[in-house]
Design brief:
The chain is of the alpha/beta class. It contains three helices and five strands.
Length: 191
Amino acid sequence: SSDVCSSDLASHLAKLRIPEQKARVKDEHTTHGESSFGKKLWCVLIVVFLGGIGWQMWKLNAYNNAVRQAKEAGFYWKCDDAISLIQQDWHNAFKKETWGEHERVLDMRGVPDLSRYREMLHHLNPTKLHARGCNDENLDALKDLNALQRLHLYNCHALQNVDGLKSLTRLRNLSVSGCLKLQNVEGLKTL
């Protein structure tokens, strides 16, 4: 009789354990599904993060190549951006004015052709540009220089129109001198 009781007890315990085991298996599947989603999410975040770093490295490389090209062409380039200020003195990293907008000056004396330097101009994105002696008939090379605020054109003898300036919404100061063939200034109406 004690064997019957113990076998009944064992069967009851076994019955009680079966749902517990099923619940445990169900929880493992839920946890596995949730961890699979978590892994996918982390993978996506890592790919986005690395893509962002790659994009910034490409932009930095393109900027450095543009600076090198400007110097090799004999142009004057001055840019007191945050990085160069911090390189001069690390205390600048903690100053508010370090992180504001800085003047970027490009002086292209004796440039024969602005369109030849279009890519360089867009990577440097100057706030102030001097062009002297260019032989361009138009200023299409300056289109979409979104930081340009001051433009000085001197002795650009072939210049006929300034339509390329239409997209320069931040342009506040324009100086044109010695551009004797200039006929069309319609591009200035939208500024």
